[in-house]
Amino acid sequence: MTTQPQSGAPPTMVTEEMLAKKGVWERVSTSPPVAESDIRKWAIATYWPEKPPRHYWDAEYAQGTPWGGIVAPPDFNPFAWPVERPPIPESRRSATAAGVGQRGMNGGQVDTFGVPMRPGDVVTTRTRLLDWDERQTRLGLTLFTRTEVEWRNQRGELVKSRVSTGIRF
Known about the structure:
alpha+beta; 5 strands; five-stranded antiparallel sheet; Thiol Ester Dehydrase, Chain A; 2 domains; 169 residues; 3 helices
């Protein structure tokens, strides 16, 4: 939504809530323990129709690798099939439902990978708003937000971080 912060000031999509949340970690979630069969199925689906690398599915072979056992592909997602999903907000149910500042698109993301996930790992994720840039574009007033999601295993080791750019206009 576009707001008028002060009389005569230009409109902005930056809200008080955004100002308060900048840099604050929130939305903490914890995965169930990673199962070896989940890793195997993910690898098969990811590499289909080719055969996945053996260190993703062959425990005996994987013991002789630098990891000393089966590891998950870097893109493995232990949060892929949540039991409960939050409802979709009304403004996102159709392209025409959203008003100014509620229309958006994905501006891309950059992933950085740490240690691989292994069977038995429990992954915790948290999210924070890093920063934003607001400017006029051919779409009108446009807000570019950067959000970071961090995944860590039960030992506190970084598994993955993702910085995503969201675009609202």
